[in-house]
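Consider the following assembly input.
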Amino acid sequence: METKIVLKDSEIPKTWYNIMADMPNPPEAVLHPGTGKPIGPDDLAPLFPMALIEQEVSTQRFIPIPDEIRRIYALWRPSPMYRAKRLEEAIKTRSRIYYKYEGVSPAGSHKPNTSIPQAYYNKMAGRKRIATETGAGQWGSALALGASFFGLESKVYMVKVSYHQKPYRRMLMEVFGAKVVPSPSEDTQCGRQILSTDPDSPGSLGIAISEAVEDAATREDTSYSLGSVLNHVCLHQTVVGLECVEQMKIANDYPDVVIGCCGGGSNMAGISFPFLRDKIAGSRNPRVIAVEPASCPTLTKGVYAYDFGDTARLTPLVKMYTLGHDFIPAGIHAGGLRYHGDSPLVSQLCHEGLIEAQAYHQTGVFQSALVFARSEGILPAPESSHAIHSAIVEAKRADEEGKEEAILFNLSGHGFFDLAAYDDYLGGKLVDHEHPENKIREALSHLPKVGA
Amino acid sequence: METKIVLKDSEIPKTWYNIMADMPNPPEAVLHPGTGKPIGPDDLAPLFPMALIEQEVSTQRFIPIPDEIRRIYALWRPSPMYRAKRLEEAIKTRSRIYYKYEGVSPAGSHKPNTSIPQAYYNKMAGRKRIATETGAGQWGSALALGASFFGLESKVYMVKVSYHQKPYRRMLMEVFGAKVVPSPSEDTQCGRQILSTDPDSPGSLGIAISEAVEDAATREDTSYSLGSVLNHVCLHQTVVGLECVEQMKIANDYPDVVIGCCGGGSNMAGISFPFLRDKIAGSRNPRVIAVEPASCPTLTKGVYAYDFGDTARLTPLVKMYTLGHDFIPAGIHAGGLRYHGDSPLVSQLCHEGLIEAQAYHQTGVFQSALVFARSEGILPAPESSHAIHSAIVEAKRADEEGKEEAILFNLSGHGFFDLAAYDDYLGGKLVDHEHPENKIREALSHLPKVGA
């Protein structure tokens, strides 16, 4: 086959795939944080447009992608799927390694797959503004892009320490017209309260979420937007896997293993759900692997329980794998994987044995990233490098077992904004953090006392 | 048509196009800097492998691209050609705007189109090491990538002020295994000499060239490598235009105007030479426009004369448009366009009226870059934004003339490493430098007294 398989604009999927139609068991109810009772669409209406709320709970198997979204997707989709022949040679495996490359998007990652439809449905619902939070800035820049395309204002609450340490992502959001403020900010009651007691607060994702939610809840023209975790976000990301299904057909192959890195879970969901459909149907039996950092081992060391999505305990309660909502992971370079919880859909599929989980330390991950960069040429994001590392581990395992397997992973983004991390690695400054058993035990003792 | 036209790996051109076979007049001889006599292949042998020297002087119309190079090209080529419908809507033009996007390469620009073959031919000739210079680091990172693919060492002399101001490009070169030193360095006689009189020298491209040339000339295992200007570099870049010729056919259109930004001239040559072939043959009559910064107006304000390629007067003398080898342009953000001379081939075609030239100030260029980013989504490099600006100017001119034209430009690279420039623009800190008439007059008075 060719080095990469490209599809035409007309081959962009016409529908998203909704795995809720095929899951062996329905997802657990989302609970109101105050009453502990299941919440309904109306509870979410102040935050999200109704079209997204409907997608959040829909059990329809295929949900049409509006033409206007497909036309914008065409700015970078279908994304290429590569056969990693040069990587295979570099690690001397007999297995066939494939990767889907989402770094070709304008924001450099898979995130615009959902920021574009989110902006679209907000525009259709007559909203004028979107508020969101961002850590290192990947999601914020994707949302700013989506909002810009539909003439919406965007306001991004960026964790203050990142705002100052990572000015390039802030600048990219501003190029796309976003208003970016360091969080905690003077713009919300919650932010002002924190600043009044701690004027030098470095901020946190939990605080930034609280600010963005308050902003959206208190302004009728404004919605809140989330870049991962939720069902409708996972749904939008299935364009990745749906394209891969077609590209694997052209390659005349089918993956024995499908791999994605896992923070909130949306890129993992995106590449794997269309293949999990085959697995659930019993027509194929791919292994599906979610890869997380050893310093934030939600799926491998967490518990499957009801918990809050944020540190400040403002969000509804969802059943998911969690390390506890006040677990604070070590400051690894894969910032996008530092989340205490996980997508409820990915969590349930993991709990039911349809998805496996692996956790790796960052020095091994960066070692694999360098092998990849020097053979395939693409500089991978530290998050995506977890999937690369797992693919290499699995290829070597197959070699040892005398098997020749087809291994597919999602290269969810490029690392042009993460070069300081590579500099640390090359300079021998990267450290592996101990398995945070004590911190996990402590955080898990604070889980809310609700749910099944 | 679709938003973008993609081709398959198998449609990567099998040959480069050599415009020397079709030029109305042969290129002027290159002269020895000492004797003033034409130089031959043997004079260049200490610096370049013979295969590249042969390409430098060949008059064969199509030169085969070795399969091994095409396989590496396939990591990102064929690159997509877009119909810029969203840009057209944003500027309300009736013309059709197309752009070729070279930012999809691993180094983020068109430069690997030549760094890969240069590394290949050096490997074939048994060289073990390549030395080169780099300013802001675009070329250095492309060469590091090429060398890495063929297991060659690379040594990059990076202008000291950029080495410290732009650490990300230095880090990218190191990821690809290059040894990068700030120039002037202690590693060459020339560098040591400068440091002994001026330990705080910020360096210059002229000094860095001298160091790289000395490195290559004094070590038998080492070649020198240049990222633009030379004939063989322009030759390699023609893959860009050759793909565009096929993509325009699929779009069922032909460009009335072909536009490239012009520093050393290679990306300009790449997109335009295959279309100039039609123009020279008389079968078509596209206008071909080279766009330069008003602060370094080589083609628009320089003279067509013999001059040195470098400040230190070490290189052979070539006939080209020049502002004088000691002209120092203002510190604009489009660092890749700050060169006193131009490709001899582009210069001659310009002199003979086959290529037009335009010069623009940077604030207008950044204004167009922002319109482009917010409509097409891609963040363009400041250099490439000169071509965007010209395309917008030409579309508006066509509108005023009541014409509907097809306008094609080369988007030669992305701007993820140039966000500080956008920040300056958005913060109102960008200045336009006066036309440097006095500095040009002064520098032109130092032209060597040789040649026709």
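Chain B is about 40% helix and 15% strand. Ask yourself how this observation constrains the way the partners meet.
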